[in-house]
Design goal:
Layout: H1 2-49, H2 55-58, H3 60-74
Length: 75
């Protein structure tokens, strides 16, 4: 009886951990999507306006993504 109870608790813990990892993966995936959309839009806008020299600053967007990605993965 006691072992079955402990086994059930362990199963619930594993399920909770699994759900947490799933949510973190979803957050990272959504952040990647927004990063790609924002970066592509900023590059397109700079090219449209003829300001190719400012394209270096567009690299800041993916850089912020990778910094936040590393923080999420380490957490």
């Amino acid at each position: 009886m006691y072992s079955e109870y402990r086994l059930e608790i362990l199963k619930q813990e594993i399920q909770i951990i699994n759900n947490t990892f799933g949510r973190l993966d979803q957050i990272i995936f959504q952040t990647k999507d927004w990063t790609v959309v924002t970066w592509t839009g900023s590059v397109a806008l700079l090219l449209k306006e003829g300001k190719e020299e400012l394209l270096v600053f567009a690299l800041v967007i993916p850089l912020f993504f990778w910094i936040s990605h590393v923080r999420w993965v380490k957490a």
